[in-house]
Amino acid sequence: MVEQLIYISTAPDLLREQVQDILSVCAQNNEALGVTGLLLYNGRNFLQLLEGEGAVLAELMAKIEVDPRHAGVTTLYRKDVAERACPNWSMRLIEIAADRAARREQVGQDLPRSLDTEARKLALNFAVLN
Predict the structure, then answer these.
(1) 3: phi > 0 → left, psi -120 to 50 → alpha, else beta; which?
(2) How far apart are CA 120 and CA 126, in angstroms?
(3) pTM for this structure?
(4) Alpha carbon distances (Å) from 76 to 1, 7, 100, 109
(5) Residues 25-81: pLDDT tens digits?
(6) What's the distance, CA 10 to chain centroid?
(7) How is residue 96 annotated by DSSP?
């Protein structure tokens, strides 16, 4: 059994280049930990889906919660699932379109088809914030 976890946080002072750097480090670290997932960033906030062993995710979240680059870390979703929605993504960035009208559709196309309905709804709602 695999656990999925979704959290949101605020990171208003990050440049997009810094987000790319974070993404690269996360992908490398996650691969070593057996963690997969995706990251949405709207220029101010993160929504991240993490998948992996529960104890590993708990340790990872403890680090994320004290990371000074973002604040207000809040877990929105935690669920045991039979299989990963993102088995081939150590961490994938899903860009959010600048055009508000296009965001929901664009993110919906980029999300894994196997993602749970509740998790998908959280990601789509996040996509239209801002």
Answers:
(1) beta
(2) 10
(3) 0.91
(4) 20, 5, 23, 22
(5) 888 999 999 999 999 988 889 999 999 999 999 999 999 999 888 899 999 999 999
(6) 13
(7) P
